[in-house]
Write a structure and sequence with these properties.
The chain has about 270 residues and is of the alpha/beta class. It is built from ten helices and eight strands. Helix 5 crosses helix 8.
Length: about 270
């Protein structure tokens, strides 16, 4: 696999392209990676936001792998940070919960996404939603300033997940918490998938073993770590065969290697 900086550059490039695509294009690609999923009616990762209060269609690019705001226990007046905020989808849903007395801050390292999110907020005349350009491994957010952190299918894209969760711990107030959706593994991926850079941007090759992922959260200082939801992701064979052989695909199925979307919660004491 590439260096940390090369992976960041790859994600920034891919998600810059995604910012210019339609929701329909992104939903039928691999987590928006434009990696060529041929099953045009197959939504690989995303869940339906349209039923949620605060939903803004122009901010929904069909990305993500869960609905973290549904589990985040956000309250009126809270300050919420959305990591990897994209065009603002989760941030605007969170704003509908915090109300006019709360605040939502989106952080994203892709300029095209930040520009799109800011344009959406301006159009909606929201004065308590802010989008900051920055790296999750070094967030432009003050210490102990946030009640709740949410994130949707983003942490798996961060090369240094240990540092990202330490940063998440830093910005949350004592007594605050996070609730994030992400992609994890059970069992080892074939080398062809692990080494496919485009699948890294597609939220698969960058995913960690579930137990390791939860250990990183614990080691960052969080307590009361709970998997709130777990859903297996079934990638279509025609997509997988772009990166691995037929024999490797058979082994993948035989060994019950699973790719899962999880929603995980944790407190800061």
């Amino acid at each position: 696999m590439s260096t940390d900086q090369e992976l960041k550059d790859l994600v920034r490039e891919k998600y810059g392209e995604i910012a210019l695509q339609s929701k329909e294009q992104n939903e039928t690609s691999c987590c928006g990676s434009t990696c060529g999923c041929n099953s045009s009616d197959f939504v690989v990762m995303a869940e339906d936001y349209a039923k949620l209060p605060g939903y803004v269609a122009d901010a929904d690019l069909g990305l993500g792998c869960g609905l973290p705001t549904e589990f985040a226990q956000i309250k009126s007046g809270d300050t919420v940070v959305d990591l990897g905020s994209g065009a603002g989808n989760d941030a605007f849903v969170a704003r509908s919960i915090v109300g006019n007395t709360g605040k939502v801050i989106g952080v994203d390292m892709t300029e095209a996404m930040i520009n799109k999110a800011r344009a959406n907020a301006l159009k909606l005349k929201f004065n308590n939603v802010e989008f900051r350009f920055g790296d999750i491994e070094q967030m432009p957010v003050e210490d102990n300033s946030v009640d709740v952190v949410v994130s949707n299918c983003v942490m798996n894209l961060v090369p240094n997940k240990e540092k990202a969760f330490v940063e998440t711990f830093r910005i949350i107030k004592p007594g605050g918490h996070f609730s994030i959706s992400d992609i994890v593994l059970k069992g080892e991926l074939p080398a062809g998938l692990k080494n496919a850079a485009v699948m890294y941007a597609g939220c698969v090759a960058g995913a960690q073993q579930m137990d390791e992922y939860l250990d990183i959260i614990k080691n960052a200082g969080f307590i009361n770590i709970t998997v709130q939801k777990e859903r297996e992701i079934h990638l279509p064979n025609d997509l997988l065969l772009q990166f691995i052989s037929l024999d490797q695909l058979r082994d993948l199925k035989k060994n019950n290697v699973g790719i899962f979307s999880i929603n995980v919660y944790a407190d800061k004491s």
